């Protein structure tokens, strides 16, 4: 997208009507390699002339659809960009109206959408970093303060989605089932395939202590795993369900801190994988992918309770008339997903912790049905097995009991 087209885009958007002309435009990667697999994230920096004649610098974020075999598979299966544009232009806009209607002054949970070019497969968004927001470094994972803010915010998001559904503005039939609980290809490639890589890594670098667990995990067939994973996603007909964010993990969140370094605001980013189901899926995915394992082990029940309080109080705030889930309902949903969360955590966390930028080769993963494409060295890095050890033992126990 050249600067003349960008000039037209900005003149038509409500982002900054004071911008009159673009003098210079510079594009650079916004994220290091290995931080995002489905899109290329670019930062666009503009030198502009304002209406009063002054020169200023403005920045925006551009998401460009990746190319390659894996990118095409994701696009065909999930329509990532179409889904995200729909969320920004329909769902999030209606959530903003809802906040205005009920005087919610806590602020939005998303960045501003600027433009979508179907021809260029580019989405233009507000640059949250320019407003003081930053991500938590993936390899460090989130602490308790961040986890509490995320779950409180997630409760607000789910509540607003449920109210919009009640008003007929969200249809549960408009979304595909959650791929990691229902899609055989993705379960094989990204859940079963990662575990096979972990088993190989344990045998190479885990020592005798973990050989027994590697042997037990190796004996689990894909068919048995597939059945167990799909069972996790089968909720009762009376389960409280709503629109989920769908990819609720650390790299898809940005935070603003106060002067003491404590997070006080957050924004969700990347709305490419929305799905309709129990909100416990978003909660489980976040808790098992994004926070320090010891934080989850020590605070799991209090975090679930915090989420439930935020969800139900937000439903009340936004005038929801339907029945609200009890804490027991949410706990039951979380318990149903324990196996999924534990398997996902143990097989994936090494890729989260590594500093390497070549942990996964998505094209090779799809080409080999998950048998190749995972860098085994990430599973042999110091401290990885020990960090996932408690959950690894719990996972084997869950299978032994089944």
Work out the strand percent: 15-25%
Q: Radius of gyration, Cα only, in angstroms?
A: 22 Å
Structural class: alpha+beta
Sheet with the most strands, sense and barrel status: 5 strands, antiparallel
Share of helical residues: 40-55%
Number of helices: 14
- In the sheet with the most strands, the strands line up as 1-2-3-5-4
- List the helices and strands in order: HEEEHHEEHHHHHEEEEHHHHHH
Principal-axes geometry comes out as globular
**How many beta-strand elements?**
9
Low-confidence stretches: none
* Amino-to-carboxy terminus distance: 54 Å
**Average pLDDT rating:** 90
SSE topology sketch:
Blueprint (H helix, E strand, L loop, with lengths): L2 H10 L6 E11 L9 E12 L4 E11 L3 H10 L1 H22 L11 E5 L4 E5 L17 H23 L12 H4 L1 H22 L5 H8 L3 H11 L9 E3 L8 E5 L5 E6 L6 E3 L2 H10 L3 H25 L9 H10 L1 H16 L8 H6 L16 H18 L1
Antiparallel strand pairs: 1-2, 2-3, 3-5, 4-5, 6-9, 7-8
Helix pairs in contact: 3-4, 4-10, 6-7, 6-8, 6-12, 9-12, 10-11, 12-14
């Amino acid at each position: 997208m050249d600067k003349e087209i960008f000039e037209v885009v900005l003149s038509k958007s409500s982002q900054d009507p004071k911008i009159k002309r673009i003098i210079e435009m510079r594009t650079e990667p916004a994220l290091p390699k290995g931080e995002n697999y489905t899109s290329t994230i670019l930062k666009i920096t503009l030198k502009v002339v304002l209406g009063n004649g002054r020169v200023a610098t403005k920045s925006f974020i551009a998401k460009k659809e990746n190319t390659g075999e894996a990118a095409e598979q994701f696009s065909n299966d999930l329509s990532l960009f179409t889904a995200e544009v729909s969320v920004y232009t329909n769902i999030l806009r209606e959530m903003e109206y809802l906040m205005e209607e009920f005087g919610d002054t806590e602020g939005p949970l998303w960045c501003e959408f600027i433009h979508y070019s179907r021809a260029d497969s580019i989405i233009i968004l507000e640059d949250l970093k320019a407003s003081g927001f930053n991500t938590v470094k993936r390899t460090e994972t989130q602490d308790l303060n961040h986890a509490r803010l995320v779950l409180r915010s997630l409760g607000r998001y789910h509540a607003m989605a449920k109210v919009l559904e009640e008003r007929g503005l969200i249809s549960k039939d408009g979304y595909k089932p959650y791929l990691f609980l229902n899609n055989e290809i993705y379960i094989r490639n990204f859940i079963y395939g990662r575990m096979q890589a972990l088993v190989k890594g344990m045998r190479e670098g885990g020592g005798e202590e973990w050989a027994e667990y590697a042997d037990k995990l190796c004996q689990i067939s894909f068919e048995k795993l597939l059945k167990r994973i799909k069972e996790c996603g089968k909720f009762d007909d009376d389960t409280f369900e709503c629109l989920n964010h769908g990819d609720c993990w650390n790299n898809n969140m940005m935070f603003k801190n106060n002067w003491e370094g404590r997070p006080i605001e957050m924004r969700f980013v990347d709305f490419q994988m929305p799905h309709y189901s129990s909100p416990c899926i978003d909660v489980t995915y976040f808790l098992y992918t994004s926070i320090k394992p010891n934080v989850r082990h020590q605070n799991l029940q209090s975090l679930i309770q915090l989420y439930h309080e935020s969800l139900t109080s937000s439903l009340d705030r936004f005038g929801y008339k339907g029945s609200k889930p009890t804490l027991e309902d949410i706990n039951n949903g979380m318990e149903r997903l324990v196996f999924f969360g534990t398997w996902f955590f143990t097989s994936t966390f090494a890729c989260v912790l590594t500093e390497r930028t070549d942990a996964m080769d998505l094209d090779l993963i799809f080409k080999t049905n998950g048998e190749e494409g995972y860098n085994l060295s990430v599973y042999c890095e110091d401290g990885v097995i020990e960090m996932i050890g408690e959950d690894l033992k719990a996972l084997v126990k869950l299978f032994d009991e089944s």
